[in-house]
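Issue: copy button drops trailing tokens. Both records pasted manually instead:
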Amino acid sequence: MPFLASDADVETFARDGFLLVPGLLDAAETERLAVTARRDRSMEQGATTRSDAAGGKTILAVRDSLSDDIYSRLVRSRRIAESMSRLLGDEVYHYHHKLMLKEPRVGGAWEWHQDYGYWYSYGCLYPAMGSCYIAIDRATQANGCLQIVPGSHHFGRLEHGKVGGQTGADPERVAAVLNRLPLMYVEMQPGDGLFFHSNLLHRSDANTSPDPRWSLIACYNTRGNDPYELKRHNRYQPLDLLPDDAQL
């Protein structure tokens, strides 16, 4: 049976700010996603590069529009979109989605940040937003897996500023948070999914391994948090969900 967030999952998400779901995609779906992503020249051509504080480069390709490709079908899948609605307590819509390409030995780090640290500036008044990270490749400490601080979403939005070529959270505040809460390395197998709140602090190290770490991240806003002005990404649009048995 495809995953759908339970009442217990909602409680876990509210407490910790994230929910890790092993096997969110089955092996065949994960393989289709991986093959599509690595053959996708249009996504590659639209990609941009972000530099970390040490000069390392990470590539991301962002899309605001939905189509009939596998990325959009995942965004619209009940297991992800309806689960996110349950976790956030409101109907969600597609804010944007992106491929993150952390290549072997050259993929740079992502500095500590909250997604709402960015999205606040795009007209979203509440942090009633979240993302689902889907591992395309195995994610390990060696190839720069996500690091999160469970429970850090309860601190609210931290100030963000420029760190290298990225926007990162106030280092002094981050240090204070890390003195009070534990850091967690989120190692994942291909097809695993991580739902996380927009105020959850997260980062990743550079990829020093011979293995790539690619991922797809589906980002959602809630209907009640429709931006008061549109600066980037999308306003509320009803999301036409796909049934559980739909082919991805």
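Record 2 (pasted manually too):
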Amino acid sequence: MTRACAVILLLGVLTGCSTLSDRYQDDTKLIISYLLYDLPLPESSEIQKSQTVILGTGAGWAGRIALSAGQSPAELLKYFSTSTVGSGWTMTASTVSDQIILVFEKESRVATIEIFRNSFLEGVSMFGGRETDVTISVHHPNAIQSQSPFDGYQAPTR
């Protein structure tokens, strides 16, 4: 009887953790899709919370989104090349090697999408497939006004 209770309790905890994790991903994707309405993200991707920073909303957002996706780099290259352009962004540069870098512009913003496969043992999913990491950085070209912001600054004396 004690073992049966322990097994049921363990299954309940594991199922609850899975549900909480799924709920967190769903909520995070909903928030990010609201904030970043004009930059499509792969549906099967998972957002890496600790590496994601978003400032602003709508057309005024800037920051970095870190994703982990089950697709290959080639599949993600195709996805971002078509879906991002389909959302009104213009591809201005690309580099394809062991790491893929795509640069897009829209209005006054620049988005850089970096796609790279984890090393052989890194990023192996629970089901045996390898994960691909994606980092999307968006900024406004005029965000930094002064190229010498510390001119004339003098450190306090002690």
